[in-house]
Design brief:
- It is built from nine helices and 22 strands.
- The protein is an alpha+beta fold.
- It has a single domain, classed as 4-Layer Sandwich (Penicillin V Acylase, Chain A).
- The strands form five sheets. An eight-stranded mixed β-sheet has the order 5-8-9-10-11-13-14-15. Strands 6, 7, 16, 18, 19, 20, 21 and 22 form an eight-stranded antiparallel β-sheet that branches.
- β21 and β22 form a beta hairpin.
């Protein structure tokens, strides 16, 4: 059941979660909120950075989130649409109507929520942005001390996504979960359900009809038209939210993510709570290939398949060769998979080039077995690579009695 309609349990609102700032070496300072966060060679005084808000929307879901943060939602809409040519702006209301028609025809269980958000925010672009898709990401499912961890970056060309990210506590029929999200957005890209599973989405490679780089816009548009022509298939990010709401464990989530028809190809990375519960699920609309070895992913299939091309950033969209696109995904995937340090220490020292790249907006490490999720926002700040624009946000959820769900623990 969508979290927006989930009934509130008697225990009420979760205890507040304190934002934690890490000093060099990984020590936690939950009180003084000082120290220095070092990431990928950049030293930023953490006391000058904003905290990532932790919000409880178990009763009202994303519509409540949007109503409470309308100004942030508008700023994000403007930042995302500002990436496109100014001449395209008058088309946004038309694109909104087309996206609404498509989502109504899809198996989206959240179309009513998007409609409610669009009315509450009262500006165009809500339907369009909920039907859009991320550009690229890198993810790794691994184990430390016998427990699964999932590390991921979210790479998008839009400014402000890292600075305006929020951590939402949500609820479904199978319990609570925490989603790294934004006001006005109903899907799930990165989330953790304590003592159940954690998962994230990477954009899948592009189906190419022509090999020439300058014809990528043609293939991009043709693929979009194919998505528009198909009905009855759920958007991948909304399927992931549904899995967090209704799946009781890793096995149930894996089965749902493997077998439910989706509107477009996608890559899911999934971890559970015990050793060997980790996989990468490579999805086309109606088929899947699941890897339980080499559980890292970027934006290409592993191995690459004929006719498919790894995603490439906007800066080289019209000039990068297919081989260079494949190399880009492979370099990010292998670099993250080759990291020999700890993901559990909370320092994010694994975030370095090529995993860190000009489009990186968010980095997350999470372990459902530990009930742990850490996130930090990134954005461009005048250099060649993004820098942290938020403090590290850390939650650790202590399991309570089954009827009471999970209570975020104060540290």
């Amino acid at each position: 059941m969508p979290s927006g309609s989930a009934k509130e349990e008697p225990h009420g609102i979760a205890a507040p979660v304190r934002h934690l700032t890490r000093r060099r070496g990984g020590d936690i300072d939950a009180g003084a909120m000082h120290g220095t966060q070092e990431t990928a060679g950049t030293s930023v005084p953490s006391a000058l950075l904003p905290a990532i808000p932790i919000i409880d929307i178990r009763a009202g879901g994303p519509p409540q989130h949007a109503r409470q943060n309308a100004s942030t939602a508008r700023a994000l809409r403007d930042a995302c649409l500002g990436f496109f040519p100014r001449a395209a702006m008058p088309l946004v209301p038309l694109l909104d109507r087309l996206c609404r028609r498509w989502l109504d025809r899809s198996r989206s269980p959240y179309a009513a929520e998007i409609a409610e958000i669009a009315v509450a925010l009262d500006f165009s672009g809500v339907w369009l942005l909920n039907a859009s898709y991320q550009w690229g990401c890198t993810a790794l499912a691994c184990e430390e001390n016998g427990l699964p961890w999932l590390a991921r970056t979210l790479d998008w060309p839009f400014r402000g996504l890292g600075r305006n990210s929020e951590l939402a506590q949500m609820r479904g029929a199978s319990g609570d979960f925490f989603s790294v999200t934004w006001p006005g957005y109903v899907g799930v890209l990165t989330a953790m359900a304590p003592q159940r599973f954690a998962a994230c989405i990477n954009q899948a490679p592009m189906w190419r009809r022509k090999a020439q780089p300058w014809l990528r816009p043609y293939d991009f548009a043709a693929n979009g038209l194919n998505v528009w022509a198909c009905s009855g298939r759920m958007p991948p990010d909304q399927l992931l939210r549904l899995a967090f709401e209704v799946c009781a464990d890793y096995r149930a989530a894996r089965d749902m993510l493997e077998r439910t028809p989706v509107a477009r190809p996608v890559i899911y990375t999934l971890v559970g709570c015990v050793a060997r519960e980790r996989c990468v699920i490579e999805r086309t609309e109606t088929d899947f290939h699941t890897r339980e070895a080499e559980t890292s992913a970027a934006n290409d299939w592993l191995p690459s398949r004929p006719g498919w091309e790894g995603r490439i950033g906007t800066r080289r969209f019209l000039v990068c060769s297919g081989a260079e696109a494949a190399d880009s995904s492979r370099a990010r995937r292998e670099a993250l998979a080759g990291w020999r340090g700890s993901f559990a220490n909370g320092r994010f020292d694994w975030l370095r080039p090529p995993v860190l790249n000009p489009y990186t907006r968010l980095a997350v490490a999470m372990s459902p077995a530990c009930g742990m999720l850490r996130a930090v926002g990134y954005d461009m700040a005048g250099g060649d690579l993004p820098e942290p624009v938020t403090q590290i946000c850390e939650i650790e959820c202590a399991p309570q009695q089954p009827a009471e769900g999970y209570q975020p623990a104060l540290r």
